[in-house]
Every structure is written in structure tokens, then in C-alpha cells.
């Protein structure tokens, strides 16, 4: 279980860095923003735009597609690597599709910025809610099938499926909240961003095992994810950096010339 937790922490950190760093921050710098502060819960700069707001979600969805392709091709990889690819896909998929629904319901967050000021505002919010629900459910089905087919967790092995879904859910929630506590904007972002971004967005892990079709069978047998101290050590080291370095915020400047 400790290795499953470590892998989940790494996957959660990856999804967050993709969203805030590769999505928001990189896009902002590419369109000409001179500098900004990157943390685990936000990218903050003097200039904002619809493109920058949308970029975090789009980066998560692009990363999920790449990770899924890598997972399908990882036939010779260890079960630990396959689980890492699978749970990383899950966090990116859930974070991406869940954000549509979240912003549509609350009129808050990235996609609220994207649709702000557009005509027929309620129609746009409704579209976000409906599209978000449909895409999120599709993401949950894909992740559930991947657990069986690529990680080797049999559909009737309820105990193992619970461990491979509940441990990642709570691990990601804890690392995101811990990483958000010292953010430079304020503690309110833990409740407004970090907690919804993990406990809310990843909630599909709590129920997806009930939606796995009976016809889905393990494509490769697996005896489980044994303890591996390399994964545990890397996760512990990067968690400290995530919490105490990125959590406090890093000022990034665009390179001129």
C-alpha cells in the first residue's frame, strides 16, 4: 500500500504541474507576459486572458491522451510503471473534464473566466455542465477499464480495486492540500482550488469500480504492486519540494531576446 501511495503522490504532483506550469504559466509567458508567480494552486500575473485560463485544462487533457497512449504501449513495463501511467492518466482526465462541470455549476474558476462576458451566459454554463458530466463519466469508464486491462486488477477482486482507487484518491487530496497551505495568495485557495481540484475532481475514483463492464478482462496477469523503496524515496523527495518550494510560489520571468 505504501508504494501505491507513493506512485499516487507522484501522479498527483505531475497532474498539478501540467495544469499550473505547462498550461497556465507556459501559455502566459508565450503570449508575452513578462513574469508571474507559479504555485501549486495558481498561476498569478499582471495579465490574464481567456487563452491562459483555458490552457490549464487543455494541458491536462493533452497529457492524459499522451499518457494513455504510453500505457497502451507499455506491454513490457512493470506493474508499478503501468499503474503510474494509469493513475496519472486518471488525475489528468478527471482534472480536465471535471473543471468544465465545476465552472459551469459554480461560475467560478478557469472556465468561468473563459465564458465571462459572452452572450447567452447561462447557455454557456449549461453547456459546460452537460459536456463536463458526459466527458467525466467517459473518463471514469476509461480509467476503470484500464485498471483491469492494463494494471491486471480483476473486476471481481473488490479488495484490490478498492486499494487501487481509494489510496490514490486520498493521497492526491492530501498532497494537494499540503501543497496549497503556504501558497502566496492566501489560505482560501486551499478551499477554493486545492480541495475541489483533488477531492472533487478525482471523486470518480470512489465509484468507477462499479461501472466496469463484465466483459473487460485483464490483458496481463499481475500479482499486485509490491513495496518498492525507490518509488517511495522519489515520492518523498518530490513531495517535500512540491510543498515547501512550489507551495510557497516561484517567480518566473520570460526570457527576452
* Terminal CA distance: 49 Å
Assembly form of the protein? single chain
**Major beta sheet, specifics?**
3 strands, antiparallel
Number of strands: 3
Runs with pLDDT <50, length 5+? none
Briefly note the structural class of the backbone. Answer: mainly alpha
CA-based shape: globular
Order of helices and strands: HEEHHHHHHHE
Tell me the strand order in the biggest sheet: 2-1-3
Amount of beta strand:
under 5%
Radius of gyration: 18 Å
Approximate helicity band: 55-70%
Structural account:
The protein is mostly helical and 257 residues long. It has one domain (2-252). Helices cover 66% and strands 4% of the residues. The protein is built from 8 helices and 3 strands. It has helices at 2-30, 50-73, 79-106, 110-115, 121-149, 158-180, 188-200, 229-246, and strands spanning 35-38, 43-45, 250-253. Strands 2-1-3 form a 3-stranded antiparallel β-sheet, with helices on one face. Strand 1 and strand 2 (43-45) form a beta hairpin. Helix 1 (2-30) crosses helix 8 and helix 2 packs antiparallel against helix 3 (79-106). It is globular and about 50 Å long.
Amino acid at each position: 500500500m505504501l508504494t501505491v501511495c507513493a506512485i499516487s503522490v507522484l501522479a498527483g504532483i505531475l497532474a498539478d504541474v501540467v495544469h499550473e506550469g505547462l498550461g497556465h504559466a507556459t501559455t502566459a509567458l508565450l503570449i508575452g507576459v513578462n513574469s508571474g508567480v507559479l504555485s501549486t494552486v495558481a498561476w498569478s500575473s499582471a495579465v490574464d486572458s481567456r487563452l491562459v485560463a483555458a490552457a490549464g485544462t487543455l494541458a491536462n487533457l493533452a497529457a492524459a491522451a499522451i499518457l494513455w497512449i504510453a500505457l497502451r504501449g507499455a506491454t513490457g513495463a512493470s506493474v508499478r510503471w503501468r499503474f503510474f501511467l494509469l493513475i496519472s492518466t486518471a488525475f489528468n482526465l478527471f482534472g480536465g473534464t471535471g473543471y468544465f462541470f465545476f465552472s459551469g455549476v459554480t461560475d467560478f474558476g478557469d472556465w468561468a473566466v473563459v465564458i465571462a462576458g459572452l452572450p447567452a451566459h447561462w447557455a454557456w454554463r449549461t453547456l459546460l455542465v452537460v459536456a463536463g458530466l458526459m466527458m467525466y463519466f467517459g473518463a471514469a469508464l476509461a480509467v476503470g477499464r484500464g485498471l483491469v486491462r492494463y494494471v491486471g486488477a480483476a473486476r471481481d477482486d473488490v479488495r484490490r480495486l478498492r486499494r487501487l482507487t481509494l489510496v490514490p484518491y486520498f493521497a492526491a487530496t492530501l498532497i494537494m492540500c499540503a501543497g496549497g497551505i503556504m501558497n502566496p495568495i492566501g489560505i482560501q485557495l486551499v478551499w477554493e482550488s486545492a480541495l475541489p481540484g483533488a477531492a472533487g475532481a478525482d471523486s470518480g475514483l470512489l465509484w468507477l469500480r462499479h461501472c466496469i463492464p463484465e466483459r473487460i478482462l485483464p490483458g496481463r496477469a499481475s500479482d499486485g504492486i509490491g513495496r518498492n523503496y525507490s518509488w517511495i524515496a522519489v515520492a518523498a523527495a518530490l513531495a517535500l519540494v512540491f510543498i515547501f518550494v512550489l507551495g510557497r510560489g516561484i517567480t518566473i520571468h520570460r526570457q527576452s531576446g
